[in-house]
Amino acid sequence: MNRITPEEIKRDPFTLIDKDWMLITAEKEGKVNTMTASWGGVGIIWNKKVAYIFIRPQRYTKEFVDASERFSLSVLPDSYRKELTYLGRVSGRDEDKIAKTGLKVAYEEGVPYFEESKYVLICRKLYAQDLKGECFIDKSLDPKNYPTKDYHTMYVAEIEEVLEA
Length: 165
What we know:
Layout: E1 2-4, H1 13-19, E2 22-28, E3 31-37, E4 40-45, E5 48-55, H2 60-67, E6 70-75, H3 81-89, H4 97-101, E7 105-108, E8 111-114, E9 119-130, H5 141-145, E10 153-164
Antiparallel strand pairs: 1-10, 2-3, 2-6, 4-5, 5-10, 6-9, 7-8, 9-10
């Protein structure tokens, strides 16, 4: 993997996150867990290049992100769509889902990511906040996206490094 700047990513962020999907990966107590995500983005806030992600409270990966100062966002080639789908549907609480996919965990300065990635963002958490139903301005979004009121936690994280295959 080569280090590049965020500006050198050759894919627009809408396709990168929404269409390609990403794996949110973190480590807790020597164990790695990951989940597939397609909600989030990149931008500038507090004079920093950041990524922002959203994780529902019941997701096992949330425990890992909460316990870690840093996490990775890995974007894999489309040929891994089957593995990405599996990692989004199965909980790491129930089985070693990473091993079942055959993906290989690598580390960049102690942060786990996947060797098969075409892009990896190494991120350091800056801010976290739980979404709240009463904060929706467009009130139609709440029942549509949160019928059981399991509101995401939003994380804003500084992009410390970008790796490209």
